[in-house]
Design brief:
Blueprint lengths: L8 E4 L2 E4 L12 E8 L6 E6 L3 E6 L2 E6 L2 E7 L5 E2 L5 E6 L4 E7 L1 E2 L2 E8 L6 E6 L4 E6 L2 E6 L2 E7 L5 E2 L4 E5 L4 E7 L1 E2 L10 H13 L3 H8 L17 E6 L7 E3 H13 L10 E10 L11 E2 L2 E2 L5 E13 L9 E4 L2 E9 L6 E10 L2 E3 L2 E3 L1 H7 L1
């Protein structure tokens, strides 16, 4: 039993309440009552009554000295998430010069929830709900919650970029139980498709941008002008055309510049103007047309192409989070552009693969509250 070192004297009818390590000397013919609920940290509430009008409500470990002999009755009070004794009253007789002790070990009417996230290095956010008990907690990382009322708990893991999140989970916590909920986060790796269709080419383009996978983008998505098309000939390498009005070809950069600027964008390094590097890219395309042959049967923007070349227009939903705040006080880019892609067939004409041959950036976008475009963002890096 833990007793405070501080001696606290409270004059009561018929006795003195003393919180100390040993009892003071009682008057002749009088005795002591000790109250010892467990566990000590609970500081369980109780009520003690005795002869000559003695009445004392209090909590935790206590000692009464210099009390009159007679019957003393202790009533253990309820405390949240713990079970009081049943019956909750006990009477003992204090003899002349004697000592009696009331003790009870409270049993938890609650449990303990241990929330673990793997790997430990991730400080992942989660939300926990027990609707029947009115419990709603938002936390992060490894956490131990106690005491928690019994009931059905639902945990929701908040998505974190670069990892596949575990499924949300429901568990039932019983009284006195310690229950562990583990959220195993696994590294999200790109899922590339065979390059055997233009649709797969764009799906892989999306994966490469969302994972900032520079090597995949450089080696397998962009047409390098060296690989032979399905007709056995090499054509002009990839070109990127800056934002333009419809049906007007704007300025462009060639394959080497696309590689250089995309490597800078995907590297996470600061931009050319000193803006923070890119932390997260989230890209999604919405088709606006179908894959069609080029309108001009001989060339696109002055470059000839092989049979089987196709083009498609998409609406873009592009979100880029920076590693910090740029010179204008913004922490990211939100771009709503239209793009037009041209895919060129390469390799075996019976089983062709497709590479990105031309990319036209079309339409307007937004740098949070500032106007921008995908073209402008690419040029920054």
């Amino acid at each position: 039993m833990k007793r405070a070192a501080l001696i606290l004297l409270v004059v009561l009818v018929g006795g003195t309440l003393v919180h100390c390590d040993k009892c003071v000397t009682c008057s002749e013919g009088r005795g002591c009552v000790i109250i010892d609920p467990e566990p000590d940290e609970l500081a369980a509430p109780w009520l003690l009554v005795g002869p000559k009008g003695f009445y004392s409500p209090s909590s935790g470990d206590s000692m009464f000295c210099d009390l009159a002999p007679g019957d003393y009755t202790l009533t253990w009070r309820d405390t949240e998430y713990w079970n009081a004794p049943d019956p909750d009253t006990e009477t003992q007789r204090l003899g002349v010069g004697g000592e009696i002790t009331f003790t009870f070990n409270y049993a938890p009417d609650a449990g303990t929830l241990v929330i673990e996230t793997e790997p430990d290095s991730l400080d992942v956010e989660w939300s926990l709900h027990c609707w029947s008990a009115g419990v709603h907690i938002i936390g992060s990382g490894d956490t131990t919650l106690t005491p928690m009322p019994p009931g059905l708990y639902e945990i929701e893991w908040i998505d974190i970029w670069g990892f596949d999140s575990p499924l949300d989970e429901s568990v039932y916590l019983h009284s006195g139980e310690t229950l562990t909920i583990t959220g195993q986060f696994t590294i999200d790796v790109p899922n590339y498709y065979p390059y055997d269709s233009p649709d797969n080419l764009i799906a892989n383009f999306t994966e490469a941008w969302n994972h900032m996978a520079f090597a995949e983008y450089r080696d397998n998505i962009l047409y390098d002008g060296v690989e032979l098309a399905t007709d056995g000939m090499a054509y002009e390498a990839f070109k990127f055309y800056f934002i333009i009005p419809d049906d007007v070809y704007g300025p462009f950069w060639e394959h080497e510049a696309e590689i250089e600027h995309t490597e800078g964008l995907f590297s996470g390094d600061d931009a050319l103007d000193g803006s923070p590097g890119v932390k997260v890219i989230q890209l999604r395309f919405t088709p606006l047309t179908f894959w069609n042959i080029p309108d001009n049967p001989f060339e696109v923007a002055g470059d000839g192409y092989p049979e089987g070349t196709l083009h498609h227009r998409y609406a873009t939903d592009l979100s880029i989070e920076l590693k910090g705040v740029n010179h204008d006080g913004f922490s990211g880019y939100e771009v709503d552009d239209h793009v037009e892609f041209y895919a060129i067939p390469v390799g075996d004409p019976e089983h062709p693969e497709y590479r990105l041959w031309k990319w036209f950036d079309i339409g307007n976008g937004f740098l949070l509250t500032q106007q921008a475009s995908w073209s402008a963002i690419k040029a920054l890096y």
